[in-house]
Amino acid sequence: MLAAQRTYIVAIATFIIVATLSFYAFRDQSVFVVARITRPSSNPTLRDTVASLFASIKHDPSATGYVDPSGTYYEGGSETIWTKPLSKKVLIVDIDTRVPTGENELLNPERLDWENLKTEDAGLVSNSIMNHYLYAMVHGYDYKFYQARDMKDHYNTWILPHVLRELIPKYQFVIVMDADVTIAHPDVPFEWMFNRWGIKQHTSIALPWDTEEIRDEGSISLDSKGMRVLNTGLVVAQNSSTTLELLDAWRDCTSETRYKGCARWRYEWSHEQRAFSEYIRYDFNKTPETIVTIPCDDAVGWPGFRQDMLSRPGTANKDISDCNGNFVRHYTTMGKTRVKDASAFSVMQMFSDALQKSILANPSEVWYKEPEKKTKMPKEQPDEVREDDQSKPDADVVLIER
Known about the structure:
By secondary structure, this protein is α/β, with parallel strands linked by helices. About 35% of the residues lie in helices and about 10% in strands. Strands 4-3-5-10-7-11 form a 6-stranded mixed sheet, sandwiched between helices. It has a 3-stranded antiparallel sheet with strand order 9-8-12. Strands 1-2 form a two-stranded antiparallel ribbon.
């Protein structure tokens, strides 16, 4: 009877011990399982990772100014209209008939060799997709590469107005940039630039002033009314009934149902850009802010643009505007070979800023300072005395006791 009781007690004790050990052994696992159930996917997307990585360096849209890495200060807008991120209400789109699916191009499934990425044609498109897509992820915007078909009886740049008209109903803003355009400071959101440029809630479209080039016969950058033309390398369109009508008119300009003489710009330079400057901006500028002109210095050219352009052969006795692409850099004509390096520099600046902020916020994690070692002073030692120098009675001297 006693043996049976002992066996029963041992069995209960064993159960309690095993149950206790199981609780501690699998406690974290149970929490993990619950977490997996409540959070279906623990693997962040690239978009989530990029947004999180650069969250600490994003410039505040409502800030009164911006200081670039060189220390140059840029003022914000006189009115702060856009104070919060618009996120997916904004679409950044690259529109192109060139498709980067060839050798060492972005949409080819083979691994990309960045060092040997080409800087012309579809290689340029590869670069623009990477630069613009990364910028969109940093700020939470939507992004698309729109593979357009060739235009019938038109120069292919005429794809711009009809694609804009197709996309704008789904967004508040659609922003189009040419393949040779890069974002100079990826930490600065478009909302801050909107404030700087004076884009309001009722603005339909915004484009930068083109560079003005002076030749022997005078300026070649003016429309038929003598006003400087606008550049379509950057187009910011805001969804409204006025914008839809404007895009319809621009898209159909060469039909001449509304604008007589527009058909000449089907192939004549500068195509849809010149058509906009000749007709659309005069017809739809219902208020000073319906069509906003962006400073050339902010959205065309690159640092040193004027000097570079004037150094070309055959430019004696000519001049051109000094537009430095403070925020959006447009590497026109001879500048296209610089696009890849410009993109790389802007990305490395972002990484540098993010790494610096991380280290300074948590210095103890990566910054070890060797403690100062206190030098112990040696104890004072008596002067060394040679044995033969010690005071001894001279052997030849006889001491006389008194």
